Amino acid sequence: MPRKVSLDELNRLTVEDFKTADKYPYVLILDNVRSLNNVGSVFRTADAFRAEKIYLCGITGTPPHRDITKTALGATESVDWEHVQDVVALIDRLKQEGWTIAAIEQAEGSVGLQDFEPLANKKFAFVFGNEVAGVNSSIIEKADLVLEIPQYGTKHSLNIAVTAGIVCWDFLTKLNKNLTH
Length: 181
Known about the structure:
GO terms for molecular function: RNA binding; RNA methyltransferase activity. By secondary structure, this protein is of the alpha/beta class.
């Protein structure tokens, strides 16, 4: 009979160990995300899936803030982050540094997440947009690809924190599979 494991049995990294541990080759860009709870949840996801960094752009809230802290559960201390006002300038800089920019949005010519195959030698920057307006068109135009999560219900979108969790888990699952083959 399965049993729930205790927190001690999980052997999680300390914040100090996390800071020095190798990260997976991806960053998350949150552009104009209004909900501080969503921001905190994305921090927690970035910690769980060992992202290199989170960029908080435009009006996206930044730590320290009690609503971010409440959902991040300490991940604001482990995950590197930076506030950048101009997301387009950030994307231009990341592209020059060799990052592949992937906007997460429903758009013409998008690639279904199930068909996305990350290459082990590439670094990815996943861009998530505003809860209502989504990813800005100027970012979509600059992106190297647009990824879309297939949906089969009546709603046309997912919560940004849920979307980030799906994208991060999918990326790491595929990347680790490619590294072992």
